[in-house]
């Protein structure tokens, strides 16, 4: 029975996709599965849509695991999907959110990379596209967005783990999300889950200037970090990508912010100090639980702050 | 399946911009085949780097020659990966 899905374990892509079907079936009143494209190796890109009805409602975008080797992000996303579904009708906050807005959740942003980590190279973090004129494969999908593309913090070397690709949106995994969000036209928040290092970041990464909404984003980021800390004491550092870690061009939240999505945040999930992104399976649920609190804080603010 | 026997992950703590610059130099040495899990940025943030087994000594020598502080985050990466695989298999059995 698919009811036996273990949210505290790591799973293959097929198992995750089967669980998406199960969630869509079990919570069909609010959950549906959409295909927004397919990867370079022709694997479907699925998003779960959480909606209580209405057309083209304002929406929150959430994605996980663009760097495929950070399995805890994909695993957390599945747990969070279940949490959203089960909290609707039970938790007044989530209920009011879904009565007003939709949530789109891309649980596996880079399916080819994810499968490659399971079958061939656990350390793989790029896509699997062929690079013309090079023996090396893949592009860092978080350097491939049309936001300061090709600038500092991205490599032009196809063999590098941070290779930006031949052009912005060259990766179909990135292009599919861009097209979906542009076609939707009413996405109000763009939230992306990465791992690890306990950071909550807002734009910019491709430049080191403050975004126009700096004060609001910083305050909201700090409130979300406080929520995260309230559960297990996990402390997140809050700031722009450039000031918090380093200048990095072609990142997703810079693209979303520059395209009018004010509430653009990147989470770098917990680091126990022993494993990097190779967190033991016993850490998945605690990671997801605390991350959920941070996400919820941001989502509530988005719900209550139309723009 | 690619294995990572003997690969170590080092956590490096920098004290100043000068040490960060040294690590950025290390990052540019492609022949060492280093995989930076956390890139050198500011002294406030540690750097984590996976070092292939045959380059561990060279990287440690580089760090020690400049007096840069480091510790071993993961002693042998393959041991951690084997444990992860074991956990996954256990959980799959539990599912069934």
Looking across the biggest beta sheet of chain B, what order are the strands in?
2-3-1-4
Largest sheet of chain A: 8 strands, mixed
The geometry of chain A reads as globular
| Overall average residue pLDDT of chain B | 94
Q: Could you describe the largest sheet of chain B, including whether it forms a barrel? A: 4 strands, antiparallel
Strand order of the largest sheet of chain A: 1-2-4-3-5-8-6-7
Helix fraction bin of chain B: 40-55%
Helix/strand-derived class of chain A?
Answer: alpha/beta
Pick out the low-confidence regions of chain B.
none
- With helices defined by DSSP (H or I, 4 residues minimum), what is the helix count of chain A? 9
Estimate the strand proportion of chain B: 15-25%
Q: Write down how many β-strands of chain A occur, each being a DSSP E stretch of 2 or more residues.
A: 8
Order of helices and strands of chain A: HEEEHHEHHEEHEHHEH
Oligomer kind: heterodimer
pLDDT under 50 segments of chain A (min length 5)?
none
The N- and C-terminal alpha carbons of chain A lie at a distance of: 44 Å
Q: Whole-number average pLDDT of chain A?
A: 96
What's the tally of helices of chain B? 3
Return the structural class of chain B. Answer: alpha+beta
End-to-end C-alpha gap of chain B: 26 Å
Structure, briefly:
Helix content of chain A is 36%, strand content 16%.
Summary keywords:
heterodimer, A: 307 residues, 8 strands, 36% helix, globular, B: 96 residues, alpha+beta, 4-stranded antiparallel β-sheet, 3 helices, 42% helix
Topology:
The complex is a heterodimer of chains A (307) and B (96).
Chain A: H1 13-26, E1 31-38, E2 44-50, E3 59-64, H2 71-87, H3 92-98, E4 102-106, H4 111-119, H5 172-184, E5 187-195, E6 199-202, H6 214-232, E7 237-240, H7 241-244, H8 252-258, E8 263-269, H9 284-304
Parallel strand pairs in A: 3-4, 3-5, 5-8, 6-7
Antiparallel strand pairs in A: 1-2, 2-4, 6-8
Helix pairs in contact in A: 1-2, 2-9, 6-9
Chain B: E1 8-13, H1 17-27, E2 35-38, E3 47-51, H2 56-65, E4 69-74, H3 77-95
Antiparallel strand pairs in B: 1-3, 1-4, 2-3
